[in-house]
Amino acid sequence: MSAGKDHAALAQVFNNDENRVDWHDETLWFVRAKRDRASHGIPDWELLRETASQIKHNVLSNMHNYLVQFEENALTNGIKIHWAADAAEHNAIVLSILKEKGIDRMVKSKSMLTEECHLNDFLQDNGVEVIDSDLGERIVQLAKEPPSHIVLPCIHKKKEEIGDIFHEHLGTAAGESDPQILTETARQHLREIFITRRAALTGVNFAIAETGEFVVCTNEGNADMGAHLADVHIASMGFEKLIPQRKHLSVFLRLLTRSATGQPITTYSSHFKKPRPGQQMHIIIVDNGRSIQLGREDFRNSLKCIRCGACMNTCPVYRRSGGHSYHTAVAGPIGSILAPNLDMEKYADLPFASTLCGSCSNVCPVKIDIHDQLYKWRQVIVKNGYSTKTKTAMMKGMTLALSSPAIFNLSGKAGRLALRYIPFAVNNGLNPWFKQRDMPTPPEDSFTDWYKKNRKGEKP
Amino acid sequence: MKVGLFVPCYINQFYPKVAIDTLELLEKFGLEVGYPLNQTCCGQPMANSGYEHLTGSTNELFTQNFAGYDYIVSPSGSCTLHIKDHLHSDEAPAEAKNIRSRIYELTEFLTDIIKIDNIKASFPYRVGLHQSCHGQRGLKLAQMTELTAPAFSKPEQLLKMVNGIELVPLTRADECCGFGGTFCVAEEAVSVKMGKDRVADHIKNNAEYITAADMSCLMHMEGILKRQKSPVKVVHIAEILNAAMV
Ligand code: SF4
């Protein structure tokens, strides 16, 4: 972990502007409340979650077979299939497809996988211009920032800031922040892009093994506009996006958007099955650490994720630290259990960026045991040596004191010395507790002292 | 029925009154309560920091201390959950297993095991109930807002038996307070912000006291209230349930 780049430090910077934190928190809480209304209105919601979780369980247990089936069917449909072991291979495949057609400008619809692979930077370095067509994505792209949320990529930006970005890049009037005007500007700008790009890349929400088709969900229809107008449609998917049969979609489509934004369904849930005449359709199936995660029994379930973002909206830490504090493509609770699989050292901080309150696991539409995995990652990270020496020394000291009733009780009247061994006082000396909080007033006697004086005492 | 009282380390050292009230409360219901003097801590601070492998000695100590009781009761949802989920012993595995299934947080013990239906207590104040996460979502002391399921709350059920108490509603019924064990110092900025927001919800809804079944959340919120010089006070649920009739 590079110095100063861990979650706590980045979150502290975010917290320097308390008004912004309040606004961020309220905005996401509003989404979470909408999700509650939408989900609580469905009497069989919990059954749906369980069903979705079981379907994904089946997929993860039979990954090989479903992948083979999907590939066969997709090939029959006339789609070209590519396999990418990692991010670099994925990016190289995209570039080679474009090169073959002599294309140097591409339009892209939202895909967290391409963020994970840093595709935009790679293509730019190789002389290919990429324009993100999802409104939020386009805004952060213009601002030269990564998305801060998987469903609401620019949720960290206020409309005035977006107005400034549009003024600089898209020629709106200075100080213009009316959402209607800004959206219309973006629409005109993107329309121009859609009709001039010969290649479009989309993500994949669900890939159906039974039929070899895939489904892309958007609210803006931007994936459709890009893909329908382009000669080449490239779809990038992590292999966990598979579901066995088309009928299973009914379960996932009901869960996805209710969990994400509280809508009953996405505005566009578009099925892509075969290229239209004259068009080329490619699917790149990406591993990039997923098979390692599949092999980690404790963490396998994280691959059930359908990227609804509900765990982020509900996470009290995410709401008050902002997506960028997670310094990884997929932020929030789910990002914190996915990232250490990719690079345990770099993301050693993330499983600790949680109070383990458990809200994420219970909001998750596919019932991923997120907070339990956070706990387990902590153990793995420490065992693999990605903890600081100071922390280890402190924990050993604490263990020693707490293993011995004599040491523990020794403090006695001497001002509750045991304070040093109390959980929250781990970093004695420069304890950050005191910065914005008062300490409890130490009582004269501990309970043990009181008990010895007032009661007979259970023999040790 | 022999009940072993488990008093978490920080309650023992900082909030002895909570432990005294817990003890007296249990005795009020005619229970024989023992307090093993050699107890220290459940090991959670190490485990949640990623050092579960260092908890062997605290686990053995805990098992020795509490073997032989019919029930173990603790005024802390978080510590209870930790024992329930993680207590293991190489020396006495059967005892450890037994303890895991027989440890209860105070309010669930009162509602589910001894099933009390009235309490002689009085607390004539406006009180906000903070649903501590580990108790609520971990031990299922109360329904959580995430799930589509009927509402219930064991702490609330008990508080409603108290004379004169007025429970205030909260805008966010079960938002985390941001304590989170070592999180409160490792992630100081976020932890404090969460605590401030949690406290503000209670104040906005006119609470005079904030209560919870977990003293650690209350300790964190108390630290913030005191720094803000707020007149709002924290009080553990055991203190309310054991508050003398006026
Ligand atoms: S982990 Fe669950 S809640 Fe979070 S984004 Fe994935 S599916 Fe949604």
UniProtKB/TrEMBL annotation, chain A:
Keywords: 4Fe-4S, Electron transport, Iron, Iron-sulfur, Metal-binding, Repeat, Transport. SUPFAM superfamilies: 4Fe-4S ferredoxins, NagB/RpiA/CoA transferase-like. It comes from the Bacteria. It comes from Mucilaginibacter defluvii. Residues 295-325 form the 4Fe-4S ferredoxin-type domain. PROSITE patterns: 4FE4S_FER_1, 4FE4S_FER_2. This is Lactate utilization protein B. Residues 435-460 are annotated as: Disordered. InterPro entries: 4Fe4S_Fe-S-bd, 4Fe4S_Fe_S_CS, FTHF_cligase-like_sf, Helical_ferredxn, LUD_dom, LutB/LldF, LutB_C, NagB/RpiA_transferase-like. Pfam families: Fer4_8, LUD_dom, LutB_C.
UniProtKB/TrEMBL annotation, chain B:
InterPro entries: Cys_rich_dom. Residues 3-84, 127-221 form the Cysteine-rich domain. Coiled coil: none annotated. PANTHER family: LACTATE UTILIZATION PROTEIN A, UNCHARACTERIZED PROTEIN YKGE. This is (Fe-S)-binding protein. It comes from Mucilaginibacter defluvii.
